[in-house]
Design goal:
homodimer, Beta-Lactamase, 11 helices, about 35% helix, DNA-binding
Chain lengths: ~350, ~350
DNA sequence: GTACGCTGTTGCGCAGCGCGCAACGCATGC
DNA sequence: GCATGCGTTGCGCGCTGCGCAACAGCGTAC
């Protein structure tokens, strides 16, 4: 549980320590003293003291002048804003996300993959009074979240195998930890076009998610709807799944994804499921090359409510939505940092 | 414009460089190469290469595998979530903020002071279609933003003097750069209980802001309404100012602020304006000691629309809103980093 | 009142580590 | 195919960051 200083990795030592120190700050312990940090990082407290002083000068932490303890600083929020800002998908999705939130009455999120986590990059809050913590920046495991499972399901086969070979951490009694079971679950997700996670990561919390594809057909993001389990009953979940997939497909279309023969059978779906390169995260800008033909989009499902979502008539073609820069998104599947548990509430 | 490596400040050199490197990434240039970074920081490119490799391992930056260039990583968003999470004020304010956004139809923000900037820590999006960039984490100058001016106006006199002694950067032709003029403007803000900024920081953008006080009467945050100038006409601004102040006062009340004889004259207001310790940012948790008596709250103003805001019946007393931890918020007024321009869109 | 335990900070001096250098591999463009 | 740009990496010097221990401040226990 404690972050040991890492056994000699090639990086710059003091920067590695700075990063590790920042990551120690969690939701449970937003405020940490020098001694406490030193203990957790197995470093001398003088080292931490100097490190914190430097980070404070940069605005990455703030020191409580009374207690002398440190907490994370708002400069992180400023940089995070710029980091999130890169995802033009957010601009495209915002309208649809809010429409979905309004239609369902539940909180909706947009998530991408970052390393071996899903990370929420935008959200539309529930209109329902039950506040459940904000989530932008929150990291969710790939194997037990509605945001993560679609990202994993449509990843390259080798990547799925790698992830399923890792220990599937059980966060609740309902977390699926058996790789074989998870494999079938992922297959179901590829067929159905959406995922459900009922208290698999957090007790009392249920969510559904559907994949968003770019113009090449690669799954680059997930749209999710989440709320308290008591409110997201199975039938409501089923009806929301339809809206969810409509929203996600509409986003995919905005990104230039042309659905390949939408009425293909399930067999065709399953056989074509593994295409593409994997990581969707680094940038969601469009790579003009290679028009994608991939798995079928969500096959039409009976939308219980029959409601259509908001206008969502945002950008029409990827080319004029996305800025000039050209960006690819395949990168080696390098495990990066363990999954961390926290609830960032914004 | 370029960030020189800083002339020997006591901190850890490589960490300082890491921080500086991260801050170089701006909205205008979200993606930077090693050579470019090296040039800007006056460092050898090998140094930057190693630095970036280390930061990437920590998830603070991502490297584009094709171009080799770097951009900010989502780990920053994760940490930022935790940083923002500390501000319990956000939870208290969220409902009121959304109500205000609904009532005005414009985007509303909640900002606190961080160093010599105001930083947005929460927002409620406009229902109007004109999307104007998201703002959480965005830094705004104290002297030319509706978020910043109230924070400055109610700061300790010495702090105001210090800030006004600094060069007041002109971002637009309408930015007030004369300290004497600004001094009177701040006085007006203390009297009126709200600030207005019409294209003083960004062209085409107008905003109004009102101060939020904690139980001691210290101004710890600003509620702002902002939108395109063409939509925020003077009379609309005037009517919104009333709602704005209602919302801010209501938040102050939620924080335990008891308005001291609200019908005091202007003279009394002005003479009592300088109290308190300054920095409102480190934490907005309640210090149970010392019930504050300070400047008068917004004096009643004719609310043109007469509309009341949403229910806003959140927490009732500070004690049960705020978590257990006790926190003070006075810290030396140390200038920290120049103001940076960017538009974080989330 | 005093002594203790705790906190975070700081001067000192050694040596470990991070830097600059230059060479390398690679992609792009003329 | 050379030229030019990029980002990365092995080497070795010497600066820098570390551990040590002493210090100052605070709250508490006796």
């Amino acid at each position: 549980m404690d972050a040991v200083p890492a056994p000699r990795s090639g990086g710059i030592q003091s920067v590695e320590r700075a990063v590790a120190a920042l990551k120690v700050f969690g939701e449970d312990e937003p405020e940490l003293g020098v001694t406490e940090l030193a203990r957790r990082l197995n470093l001398h407290k003088s080292t931490i003291s100097r490190l914190m002083a430097t980070l404070e000068a940069g605005g990455f932490v703030q020191q409580d002048p009374r207690t002398g303890r440190y907490r994370l600083g708002l400069q992180l929020a400023t940089l995070a804003g710029r980091a999130l800002n890169q995802y033009d998908l957010r601009d495209v999705a915002r309208g649809a996300l809010h429409s979905l939130a309004r239609a369902t009455g539940e909180t909706c999120n947009l998530a991408v993959r970052d390393g071996d986590d899903a990370v929420n990059i935008d959200q539309a809050l529930s209109t329902n009074p039950v506040k459940h913590l904000g989530w932008i920046g929150r990291r969710l495991p790939l194997h037990c979240s509605a945001a993560g499972k679609p990202l994993l399901a449509f990843a390259p086969r080798t990547d799925i195998e790698r992830v399923l070979a890792l220990p599937l951490v059980a966060y609740t009694p309902r977390t699926v930890t058996d790789p074989a079971t998870m494999w079938h679950e992922l297959e179901r997700i590829r067929v159905d076009g959406f995922a459900v996670a009922i208290e698999e990561f957090e007790p009392e919390l249920t969510a559904a998610g559907a994949p968003v594809r770019d113009h090449r057909g690669e799954v680059i993001a997930t749209v999710t709807v989440s709320g308290p389990t008591f409110r997201l009953t199975p039938d409501r979940l089923a009806s929301m799944a339809g809206m969810l997939r409509e929203t996600a497909d509409q986003l995919s279309a905005s990104l230039g994804y042309r659905a390949p023969s939408p009425r293909l059978g399930i067999a065709a779906v399953s056989s074509r499921a593994f295409v593409g390169s994997g990581y969707a995260s680094p940038s969601l800008r469009i790579d003009p090359a290679s028009a994608g033909v991939d798995t079928a989009p969500s096959r039409p499902v009976a939308t219980a409510t029959g409601r259509r979502l908001g206008p969502g008539k945002r950008g029409t073609l990827a080319a004029d939505i996305m800025p000039t820069r050209v960006q690819a998104d395949d990168r080696p599947a390098r495990p990066r940092g363990a999954h961390e548990e926290e609830r960032s509430t914004w």
